[in-house]
Specification:
- By secondary structure, the chain is an alpha/beta fold.
- Helices cover about 25% and strands about 20% of the residues.
- It contains 10 helices and 17 strands.
- The strands form 3 sheets. It has an 8-stranded parallel β-sheet with strand order 7-6-5-4-3-2-1-8. Strands 9-10-11-16-13-14 form a 6-stranded antiparallel β-sheet. Strands 12-15-17 form a 3-stranded mixed β-sheet, with no helix packed on it.
- Strand 5, helix 6 and strand 6 form a beta-alpha-beta unit.
- The longest helix is centred in the N-terminal third of the chain and has 24 residues.
- It starts with 9 loop residues before the first helix and ends with a strand.
- The N terminus and C terminus are likely disordered.
- Bound molecules: alpha-D-galactopyranose (GLA).
- The site of alpha-D-galactopyranose has 9 residues, from loops.
- Alpha-D-galactopyranose (GLA) binds next to loops.
Length: about 425
């Protein structure tokens, strides 16, 4: 029991506590309470973008992806946005200052593509840049924000990725706010995706400006890049919440630079960390194994969980703490109806174990679990998985505490498939 200092009355003490609580709550709550409320992007975006696939930003690639969404059953799983990246416009604005869709890539104009995508029940996204030119040298929106936002709305665009090339020096936040306000001033709800590469600590203010914010530079098609993105951003998980999410960049699943096991870990880490899941491959050529990964409804459901809280690392007792920049094997996060635990064979094959007692906010007890890639189920006081391939991942959804406390941890050996 703490006793009050003798010279302080209980009233004074209560007042001081109240002020301290207010200050602390105000500081902590501000990034979460002042979130952009534009009616969209409440959950991480599910979609596709042509860039990682090396496909052109054209009507043809957009419509092929849209048709694949329908034919492959991706639409039924919630994949919605068909987004075109850099290079959809001509190199110059027209006489009125408007951006012009490249007539070779959009022979029937932009609205026609947007209409066809909407007719399939999907949504349409485009890319722009907050500087004078895009990264590939096409016109940027600096000084044209209101005009460009109006044009996007006239094409019924649903998603705007806004890049950071060829920008003036100085704080990036005002530039991104100018476009936010221009989009809000249109009559359309447009998901606003800040492609800002994690500079100026964007996660600290991104939620008041956009629906997602890139947390770093561009992903490349290899395991080191995937591992590095996941490892580097575990510390900023708490900034993701409904309406605004850390964006780990577009997926490389299907592009041949990752093993099947690595594709499971890539998709799984992005999913549990509540990153947007933007497919970045040619869906007309995707392999069955990659398709099975991106079609895992249970992993998608973790990503889309209404609680919207990103998983982060935890340290089981007896294990070394995470090392900066190195992918850590142990991940967990709360769900609206349970917990998710991720085990990643980051350092090679073998068995990984985690006791529920070591999982933050879960705690000791006997729980039921399902491993989401294999469908295996069990119950016990922890999870354990034996990996036969390095860099593989097992994702456990942990639910209901089992009332009668059975004693032993249940372990299962298998490779998720
Ligand atoms: C930047 C972005 C990428 C992509 C390219 C296009 O590098 O970070 O995601 O949009 O520009 O040029």
């Amino acid at each position: 029991m703490h006793s009050l200092p003798p010279l302080m009355s209980s009233t004074t003490f209560t007042m001081i506590s109240f002020v301290v609580t207010l200050l602390l709550t105000g500081t902590r709550a501000s990034p979460l309470t002042r979130r952009l409320d534009n009616g969209v992007g409440v959950k991480p975006a599910l979609g596709w973008n042509n860039y990682n696939a090396g496909l052109s930003a054209s009507a043809e690639s957009a419509l092929a992806a849209a048709n694949a969404f329908v034919q492959l059953g991706l639409q039924d799983l919630g994949y919605t946005y068909i987004n075109l990246d850099d290079g959809w416009s001509t190199m110059a604005r027209d006489a009125d200052g408007n951006l012009v869709p490249d007539p070779n890539k959009f022979p029937n104009g932009m609205k026609n593509v947007s209409d066809q995508i909407h007719a399939l029940g999907l949504k349409f996204g485009l890319y722009g840049d907050s500087g004078t030119a895009t990264c590939a040298g096409f016109p940027g929106s600096q000084g044209y924000e209101a005009q460009d936002a109006t044009l996007l709305a006239s094409w019924d665009v649903d998603y705007w990725k806004y890049d950071n090339c060829n920008t003036p020096s100085g704080d990036s936040q005002p530039r991104y706010e100018t476009m936010r306000d221009a989009l809000l001033a249109t009559d359309r709800d447009i998901l606003y995706s800040l492609c800002q590469w994690g500079v100026d600590s964007v996660w600290e203010w991104g939620a008041s400006v956009g629906n997602s914010w890139r947390v770093g530079g561009d992903i490349t098609n290899n395991w080191n890049s995937v591992a590095n993105i996941a490892a580097s951003n575990a510390g900023i998980a708490s900034y993701s919440a409904p309406g605004g999410f850390n964006d780990y960049d577009m997926l490389e699943v299907g592009n041949g630079g990752l093993t099947e096991a690595e594709e499971r870990a890539h998709f799984g880490l992005w999913a549990i960390c509540k990153s947007p899941l933007l497919l970045g491959t040619d869906l007309t050529k995707i392999s069955d194994s990659s398709l099975a990964i991106i079609k895992n409804a249970d992993v998608i459901a973790v990503n889309q969980d209404s609680l919207g809280r990103a998983a982060s690392t935890f340290t089981p007792s007896g294990q070394a703490a995470p090392t900066s920049g190195q992918l850590y094997p142990y991940w967990s996060g709360p769900l609206s109806d349970g917990f998710v635990i991720g085990l990643v064979a980051a350092d090679g094959v073998g068995t990984l174990n985690a006791s529920f007692a070591d999982v933050p906010d879960l705690g000791a007890g006997t729980y039921s679990w399902t491993e989401l890639y294999s469908g295996k189920t069990g119950s016990g006081d922890g999870v354990s998985w034996t990996f036969e391939a390095e860099h593989d991942m097992a994702i456990f959804k942990v639910t209901g505490k089992v009332p009668s406390q059975s004693s032993s941890a249940v372990s299962t050996s298998a490779t998720p498939s």
